[in-house]
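A favour between colleagues. Tell me how you read the following sequence-structure pair.

===
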Amino acid sequence: MPEAEPSAGQKGRPVSGESAPKPRTYYVYVLECEDGSLYSGITTDVVRRLREHLSQRPPGARYTQRHRPVGLRGLWACEGRSPACRLEWRLHHASRPQKLELLAAPELAGGEWGPVGKEERLVLWEEAVVPTGA
């Protein structure tokens, strides 16, 4: 007897009455480096990515291998990769004064990007700085 064709829900697509899967949360971050420069990027795991940057070895960015990060200055939560990439693009194309203005008032990024508060950023930074297993 032939097997029944899987329903749309079994194929990973929502069927009538089901909601679409929630997009993965991405984070856009801004690091301040020892020389005062700013570095921005995106990740799905903030602590892991900070540890990569702090290791000053691959897979950390080449930039942060030469310019040691000293703080997490900005962090925004985004529902999905596309909005995260849009904010990262804006940051990469912004002048330094524009970046500093956005870091001073992170809500200026707009409704699509949810700023993460200073206290939570500090907790994430401290977690990344503490060696694994400590």
User: Anything to note?
Assistant: The first strand starts at residue 25 and ends at 33.
